[in-house]
């Protein structure tokens, strides 16, 4: 478990090669937009890049809202630290159910993996990252093998790892009840169903102070660790459900620093260099 103070001290001691001017001084890079079939995606890459690791991001929004432009400081921060960044749209409820959304994520990933080299990225060093509903979709597709060759996963704040357990604990309400209205689909749509003894890619799991996030994240982390998977569990109880996504990369190590930014960057450096 990582707490805020020890994480910041450890990261500073490790002297990670950060280049992080304050985010409000960083110009937001302009992406190139592509149609991958069901929807569009944006690729952000430094000019003249070659062979850089890639962060593949899936936005949240309760499976029914949001779009690929909701990336906050992520592109500027990650490009300044030697990464490419991709952010995708996927079809929303009620027009597309969650199973269709997961298939969209897999198609977008396949497009990025097939094409990222010509934008300066390394197709063998792609890290899947998602927040909220996007966290669930990255966990689901990553665990079931729908992101072939994915180097690592960053799971940022969801309760939807085990839908049967969520229902048992009284959590199948509001957004979850709308997205997962059919109990016969719960097993197929639960990332935990695919943690079946195989070792999975290194996984970073963060949770906020929002109700139930810590319990669900810890249970999923333990399930993964039992397979021999390398898991980093981040205690984000100082963050709200929104700020744990919004604050990533915003401050870097300016002023007070941001613990989540430091933890994620340390994880990225240790997994994809």
Please explain how this structure is put together.
The protein has 273 residues and is an alpha/beta fold. It has helices at 4-14, 74-80, 98-115, 133-143, 163-168, 174-179, 213-225, 243-246, 259-272; strands spanning 32-35, 40-44, 52-58, 84-88, 121-131, 152-156, 203-207, 231-235. Helix 7 links the parallel strand 7 and strand 8. 33% of the residues lie in helices and 17% in strands. The chain has one domain: 3-Layer(aba) Sandwich (Rossmann fold). Strands 1-2-4-3-5-6-7-8 form an 8-stranded mixed sheet, sandwiched between helices. The longest helix has 18 residues, at 98-115. It has 9 helices and 8 strands.
Question: Could you give a short description of this structure?
Answer:
Helices cover 33% and strands 17% of the residues. The chain has helices at 4-14, 74-80, 98-115, 133-143, 163-168, 174-179, 213-225, 243-246, 259-272; strands at residues 32-35, 40-44, 52-58, 84-88, 121-131, 152-156, 203-207, 231-235.
Strand and helix layout:
Layout: H1 4-14, E1 32-35, E2 40-44, E3 52-58, H2 74-80, E4 84-88, H3 98-115, E5 121-131, H4 133-143, E6 152-156, H5 163-168, H6 174-179, E7 203-207, H7 213-225, E8 231-235, H8 243-246, H9 259-272
Parallel strand pairs: 3-4, 3-5, 5-6, 6-7, 7-8
Antiparallel strand pairs: 1-2, 2-4
Helix pairs in contact: 1-9, 3-4
Key structural traits:
273 residues; alpha/beta; Rossmann fold; 8-stranded mixed β-sheet; 33% helix; 17% strand; globular; disordered N terminus
